[in-house]
Amino acid sequence: MSGLGENPFEIGPEELEEIIEELAEEAENAQELEETVRAIVASQGGLGLGYGGQGQGQVESLELLVSFFEAKAKRIRLSVEFPKKPARQGIRVGYKKWRPTDSPKKLDIRATIMRHGVAIPGLTTLKVRVMRFTTSYLEERKPIDLVVSIDTSGSTGAPTGIMKVRFLGRERVNTADHEVIMFYALIDLAKKINQRIGLTLWSSGIDFTTLPECLDWREMEKLKREIITRWSGGFTHIIYALRQAKRHKDKLFFIITDGKVYHKELIDVDNVMFFLINPEERDYKAFVEKYGPERVIKVEDVRQLPKIAINVWKALFWRG
């Protein structure tokens, strides 16, 4: 029999965490989640969890935002089917010189003409360059390091969990929120195959990066908070992201941007997959002409970005 004064509806710390996880999955945005959790915590007298005490507001909001993004990422991950079959052992990442001693089948005459206008054997002729996974990956499930390089310029908004914003009297999707959900999903997938993850945030320059280090499963969880707290606005100077990729040729980069860049900044780089969010046609064509259609993914609706990125990752790395 319960003693006098005990609350028969008392919620313990572990139970509250489970409730938050369920609420985060159903909430339309982070504000709705926070308001609901605040009401629950208030009814329980604060619970001593750092959700209602003095001076805890910043920690509270950040942790609830992380929970919100985690729940959304989990839902999208579970919606993607992962068949048990080997991943491809390499990806097309650009072109290199075709020499007369190479197999004629490897000559890419279309790329040669597009790049140089004339086919001079051994001088202008090109063949596809393939980035191959190492034997250790195939045998020990250790894939190439993946660096997620995200455009955080002013047009992307900020990762607040609001999901939609009003701009010039119109409602628009908050790009930053969906970029963060995508990154959370990629972190959770990387853990499954013992892949190391790096993060770069860029706009007018490199605003934050983990490089030269990529983090393993024991450390990458902290990046879920870094991506929120280190987000910054600015202009879209992709040259800094491309130079970084060029310096780290042993890693594969996912560069995410709206494609509104200076085309002269599109330098040659082989180890990048590009995700262009609702790009203008002229920008999309500039990327395709420079890097080839296999490496440029058009994301016409940013709400589909997490799922598209998961499917690209699956095609490259998933072994079942």
Summary keywords:
320 residues, 10 strands, 10 helices, single chain, six-stranded mixed β-sheet, 17% strand, two-stranded antiparallel sheet, alpha/beta, disordered N terminus
Provide structural commentary:
With 320 residues, this protein is of the alpha/beta class. It has ten helices and ten strands. It has a six-stranded mixed sheet with strand order 7-6-3-8-9-10, with helices on both faces. It has a two-stranded antiparallel ribbon with strand order 1-2. Helix 1 (13-26) packs across helix 3, helix 3 crosses helix 6 (175-192) and helix 6 packs parallel to helix 10 (305-317). The protein is elongated. It starts with 12 loop residues before the first helix and ends with a helix. Mean pLDDT is 82; it is low at 1-5, 47-59 and 134-140.
